């Protein structure tokens, strides 16, 4: 078996994780691995009526009418099978993510693998439309996993494989060019937050971003989980991510040790100036102060 990194999404307050899971090669690099993958990983829609799988589709309270409706929605999205892998559990069944709004599982379509968020039956949201709308806006400025499609109860998006930012930092600390790679990732991340600010979309949880950022194998950072995002409140993506990366918590301490200690008073001054006047010039002054070697 191949060892493959599986990264999950955080749903609301659920823990986003990235860990090694032993299972067959998802990409099906040869015909043998493809066939093994089909046997060991993919559960076709026709087999989801088995109780342990049905409980995932309609969690936490199963309803046969609702189950059939959700199967129809999966077919509408072009989903052929689901893969029940991950660290979280619904009963005895593994899933990628489990939170207050939904359950995330790995889905298989004609185009390959994707992440599927399934609305919980007890969710306070009646539809996945809000998150889909917020993700569309993020996608419009090249941020977040690509939204593929959605229905009332389902949201299908690109599946991002990688490591949570804190775990990625610990990994690159043991490798070459640590400071350079870290600066590039943080620069990209700050630019993404700038674009979100300009788009008027506030993520809402980037001051606690350890569960919302994944870095893939090409050192590309991805901002995830737009469930609580809003276009109605004042944007604070840049200021929130700076607080997480450079001011408060273990991640900030690690980053400052790898790069250099950021002068706290100067940083707070620059953040306040940007908050009061969020221009590109003030953003550049802030970013340069944080990342210039």
What does this structure look like?
It is built from 10 helices and 14 strands. Residues 1-39 have low confidence and may be disordered. By secondary structure, it is α+β, with helices and mostly antiparallel strands. The strands form 4 sheets. Strands 3, 4, 7, 8, 9, 10 and 11 form a 7-stranded antiparallel β-sheet that branches. Helix 7 packs across helix 8 and helix 9 packs antiparallel against helix 10 (280-291). A hairpin with a 3-residue loop joins strand 7 (97-98) and strand 8 (102-109). It folds into 2 domains: 2-158, no CATH class; 163-291. It starts with a strand and ends with a helix.
Q: Can you tag this structure with a few keywords?
A:
single chain; alpha+beta; 2 domains; seven-stranded antiparallel β-sheet; 21% strand; elongated; disordered N terminus
Alpha plus pi helix count: 10
Average of the residue pLDDT scores: 87
Structural class: alpha+beta
Order of helices and strands: EEHEHHEEEEEEHEEEHHEEHHHH
How helix-rich are the residues, as a percent range?
Answer: 25-40%
Q: Please state the overall shape, judged from the principal axes of the Cα atoms.
A: elongated
Task: Give the total of domains.
Answer: 2
Main sheet summary: 7 strands, antiparallel
Which oligomeric form is depicted? single chain
Rg measurement, Å = 20 Å
Secondary structure tally: strands: 14
**Regions with pLDDT < 50 over 5+ consecutive residues?**
1-39
Termini Cα gap: 42 Å
Question: How big a fraction of the residues is strand?
Answer: 15-25%
Describe what is shown at a glance.
The longest helix has 22 residues, at 178-199.
